[in-house]
Amino acid sequence: MEPEGALRRIAFELERAGAPTYRVQAFRRAAAVLAAMPAAELAQRIADGTLQDLRGIGPATASAIAQAAAGERPDYLVRLEAAYESPPPTAMRAALRGDCHTHSDWSDGGSPPLEMAEAAQALGHEWMALTDHSPRLSVANGLSAERLAEQLTLIEKLNADLAPFRILTGIEVDILEDGVLDQREDLLARLDVVVASVHSKLRMPAGPMTERMLAAVASPHVDVLGHCTGRMMMGGRRRPESEFDADTVFAACRENGVAVEINCRPERQDPPDGLLQQAADAGCLFAIDTDAHAPGQLDWLDNGCERAERAGITPGRVLNARSAAGVTDR
Predict the structure, then answer these.
(1) Which residues is 239 bridged to in the sheet?
(2) Is the peptide bond before 38 cis (omega within 30 degrees of 0)?
(3) What does the pLDDT look like over 29-64, one tens digit per residue?
(4) Alpha-helical runs (H) found in 163-289
(5) What is the rounded (10 degree) CA torsion for 187, 167, 10, 84?
(6) What confidence tens digit (pLDDT) does each residue in 126-174 have?
(7) Which H or E element spans position 30?
(8) Contact 277, 311 (CB under 8 A)
(9) How many helices (H) and strands (E) does the chain have?
(10) Is this structure's pTM higher than 0.90?
(11) 3-state secondary structure of 194
C-alpha cells in the first residue's frame, strides 16, 4: 500500500465510522501534501525523520506514511479495519447499483467529485448522482446557476475518463417557502437527478408545509423527495419532524413518479419507520440514498436497505436499483 493511498484509506474508514471531521481532514490534508511531493523527496524525508516539518503532517499521519513506505500496513488502518463490523448482506443491498444523493466540495462536501466517484466505483457502484446544494442554502455553499453550469462541464470530462462508471448530473434543490424550486428551470431540465428537499422554515404549520411539498412534487423536474421530515436525531443539531399531511404527499409522489428518499445518514434515518411504512403501503417508489458528504459515507447504504426490507419494499420499487440508463430514461 503506497503512502498516499494508505492515508486516503484511513480517511475513508474514519468517515464510514462517523469520526469527527477534524480527524478525517488531518489524513486527507496529509494525502494532499504527498500528492504534490516527488517520490525522492518523500523517501529522503522519511530517512531524515523530517516529515513533520511539513505543514499538514503530524505524528499520526507521519507514522502511517513511514509504515506504508516500508511496505507495512499502517497500524492506524489495521485498528480501524479491525473495529469495523460489516453489516449482514441483504438482497436489497446486492440489488443497488448507484446512489441518488451525494455531495462534493463544490458545496458542503469534503472531497472533489472525482474522489467521490472513485470511492463509489470502488464500492461496486455503477453510477453516482452528484447532487450538490442549490444557491439559497448559502451556509452550504450552494451552487449558483453559473457554478452549476461549470460543474456540468466538469462532469462531462470526468465521465469520459471514468467510463463505464458514470456520474449522473444532479442537484439537491431547496423547496422554498412557496413550493418554488431554488434553481433555474432550464438548468433543472438538463439534470439527470433532481432531489428536492426542505431546508428552511421546518416548523411551519402542517397545512402550508403540505402545500409547499405538493408544489415541488408536481414539478416535472423532480425525481426524489429528499429527507421528507427534516428530522435530526443525534448531536447538537437535534430537530423534531416537520408536520405535513403524509397521505396526501405520498399519494402525490406515487402519482407523479417521484421517489420518496430513504435517507441513510445515521442522524436522519428519514422518514421514520411509521412514515416509511405509510409510504410503502401507498405504493410509492423509493430511493435509498446515503446523502454522503465524504467518500467513506458512501458506504452507509446498509441501514437504509435493512429498513426498506422491513417495510416490505422490494428492489423493483427502488430507483437506485436501476442502471444509469434506467434512471435517466424514465
Answers:
(1) 232
(2) no
(3) 999 999 999 999 999 999 999 999 999 999 999 999
(4) 185-188, 206-217, 246-256, 273-281
(5) 100
(6) 999 999 999 999 989 999 999 999 999 999 999 999 999 999 999 999 9
(7) helix 21-35
(8) yes
(9) 14, 6
(10) yes
(11) strand
93: Cα separation from own chain's centroid: 16
**Residues 6+ positions from 118 with CB-CB distance below 8 Å:** 162, 295
CA dist., res. 95 & res. 234, Å (int): 29
CB 185, CB 194: distance < 8 Å? no
For residue 174, give the C-alpha cell: 431547496
Cβ proximity of 227 and 290 under 8 Å: no
Q: What's the CA gap between 285 and 59, in Å, rounded?
A: 49
| 96 three-class SS | coil
205, three cell numbers: 404549520
- Residue 314: CB atoms within 10 A of its CB come to 14
The C-alpha cell of 134 is what? Answer: 442549490
